[in-house]
C-alpha cells in the first residue's frame, strides 16, 4: 500500500504485459460510455481525488482553498482542468494499440507535472 501521510491508503498494482485485443476493445467500449459525459465524469474524478488527497490541491492556485465538494464541482477552473485530464486519458485509450504512443503521452504528462508544476513524486505514486 502507498500512502500520502495523513491521507487515504491506496493499493498499487503493476502490470507489465500488453493488453489483448479483447481487453483493449473492452476498455475502449467502457471508456466511450464515460467519455460521452467527459466533463461531469472528469469533475467527479477530480473532486474525489481532492477529497481523498486534500494536500494535492496545493498545486492549484485557483481552487486550492476550496473544501466543499459542491464548491469544487461548480468551479469553472476545476471543470476546465477536469476536461484536460479527460482529454489526456482519451488520447491514451484511443492509442492502446500503440504502447509507444501511450508511453510517450504519459511521459510528457509526467515530465510537465514534475518539472513545470513541481509536483512531488509521492503524487505520481498516488495516481498509478
From TrEMBL:
One Pfam family per UniProt: Globin
Its EC number(s): 1.15.1.1
Keywords from the named record: Heme, Iron, Metal-binding, Oxygen transport, Transport
Glycosyltransferase found in the keyword field: no
Xref: InterPro entries: Globin (IPR000971), Globin-like_sf (IPR009050), Globin/Proto (IPR012292), Globin_lamprey/hagfish (IPR013314)
Domain called Globin: residue spans: 18-128
Protein name (database record): superoxide dismutase
Gene: CYGB
Amino acid at each position: 500500500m502507498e500512502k500520502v501521510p495523513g491521507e487515504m491508503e491506496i493499493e498499487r498494482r503493476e502490470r507489465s504485459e500488453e493488453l489483448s485485443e479483447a481487453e483493449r476493445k473492452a476498455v475502449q467500449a467502457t471508456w466511450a460510455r464515460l467519455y460521452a459525459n467527459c466533463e461531469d465524469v472528469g469533475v467527479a474524478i477530480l473532486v474525489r481525488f481532492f477529497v481523498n488527497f486534500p494536500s494535492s490541491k496545493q498545486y492549484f492556485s485557483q481552487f486550492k482553498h476550496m473544501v466543499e465538494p459542491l464548491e469544487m464541482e461548480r468551479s469553472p477552473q476545476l471543470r476546465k482542468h477536469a476536461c484536460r485530464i479527460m482529454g489526456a486519458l482519451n488520447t491514451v485509450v484511443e492509442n492502446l494499440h500503440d504502447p509507444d504512443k501511450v508511453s510517450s503521452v504519459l511521459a510528457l504528462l509526467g515530465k510537465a507535472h514534475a518539472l513545470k508544476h513541481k509536483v512531488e513524486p509521492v503524487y505520481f505514486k498516488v495516481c498509478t
